[in-house]
Amino acid sequence: METKYLSISEIHNKLKNKELSVKELINDVHKNLESHLSSNFLVTLLENDFDGDELQKMFDEQNLLSAIPFVTKDNFSTKGILTTAGTKILENYYPPIDATITKKLKDKNTILLGKSSLDELGMGGTGLFGFNGEVHHPFDKDRIAGGSSSGSAYAVAAGLVPFATGSDTGDSIRKPASFNGIVGFKPTYGSISRYGVIPYAPSLDHLGYFTRSVEDVAILCDATYGYDEKDFTSIDNTNEYYKNFSKSPKQIKFGFIKQVEKYMKTDLKDSYEKLFEKIKKDGHTIEYIDFNEQLLESIPAVYMMISFSEAVSTHADLDGINFGLRAEGSDYIEIMKKSRTKYFGPNVKKRFTIGSLQLKKENQEELLNRSKKVRTLIIQEIKKLYEKIDILILPPSFSVAPLIKDVLGTDIEDRDDNQGVWIEDILILGNMSGMPSITLPFIKENNLPIGINLNAKPKADLELLQASNYLEQLLSKVINKEGKFNE
Ligand code: GLN
Q1: If you take atom 3 of ligand 1, which residue's CA is the nearest one?
Q2: Percentage helix, strand, coil for the chain under 3-state DSSP, each rounded to 5
Q3: Nearest atom within ligand 1 for CA of residue 124
Q4: Any catalytic annotation for residue 148?
Q5: Residue ranges per domain, the chain?
Q6: What is the reported pLDDT for 184?
Q7: Which of 39, 73, 108, 457 is catalytic?
Q8: Ligand 1 centroid – CA 125 distance (Å)
Q9: pLDDT tens-digit map of 96-120
Q10: Is 349 known to be catalytic?
Q11: The model scores a pTM over 0.90
Q12: Which of 6, 255, 258, 361 has its CA at a distance of 20 to 30 angstroms from the CA of residue 329?
């Protein structure tokens, strides 16, 4: 039986109705993952060494995640299984522990089949910066899949697994979801413990998922939310997500940032306007909100300052002595220098260098602390916005996935500084404020997807899923298979 493109709940029903045995499922998914290996979307394909009877016992009618195969981003620690975080320096790292999220998914009897590729240490948005090779778009090899969670996005978009994990420091789940036409979700900051996940920038890092539906996100929230004493930033944001996600409120106040509109091409703008008309017809409201433009313009700079400095500080231990591959040297300083020089990629080195500069005593006040102050102003502006609306709609990308030749070798700081560069980084608002955020498939241009992104105030994860469920249903009615509005 063909298992491609099925969601968690569809697989669950097939297992329940005995249309499929767990062994058939796992063999088929494994075979499909294997047939895509040349795309570099996995760092490691895991063998499944259970026999048929053992596998069948993993299934439990009461547990929607039981026996569900998935892949996890390779910065998630998996005990005894290679975990590289996409960097050469960790090419031989077999963690002694499971990350809390790994453990929680294991406790639900899910079946881990692969570790997926990422931009080195999560630093990048293209999927071209991982040490094990470039990941390209599953539907067009000349384009990027997006990053940094490129392998996970690829796996779900190609229909190989029903869900995959990701981490999101700037937009690394939600932007690739847009490019690949799938659901990409990050919860309120701290809802899923980050313990055991190799960080990028702890104050901005969120863990989350790629799925085929909002329903599946709700299932995963129930399974993996919760306070964890091992992560001092974690919070108890548990709720009955699966039970309640489909109870969409009668009237939702949606909002859209006015300043975003002028950077949208006509076609995209038309699509949003058409959608807003349909939403209003259903009795909901859409409000165009003013957002301080100077603050919007500061997003890329503030993000770079904060994330690069946090990254260089968190990764001080990747030195060939505490962790990582070691290069020869005559004393420990030389060993560190040579190990880091030899095994980090150019993008990471660049970000570490900029980060270190900001951490110098004489620069901290002028650069880093000022950035943190601007971040606070951004958070206050977002708070104000939620006094008027429930759900903020943002475009997660302004075009389809770019061509590799147009982005190769470039990175966030290489964008030209024309007016409006911040729109590419608009989703970072979600990381700065910690609000829950989700990208859903929306339209298609030349048969390539562009998503739509929804946000709610911190801790309103259930309200976000309810609004997303409403929008998912609406989109399934008004958008056809070609990704165009039915007239
Ligand atoms: N594209 C962003 C960057 O390059 C986001 C990375 C992320 O979310 N991990 O930093």
Answers
A1: 124
A2: 45, 15, 40
A3: 4
A4: yes
A5: 8-254+393-478, 293-366
A6: 99
A7: 73
A8: 5
A9: 999 999 999 999 999 999 999 999 9
A10: no
A11: yes
A12: 361
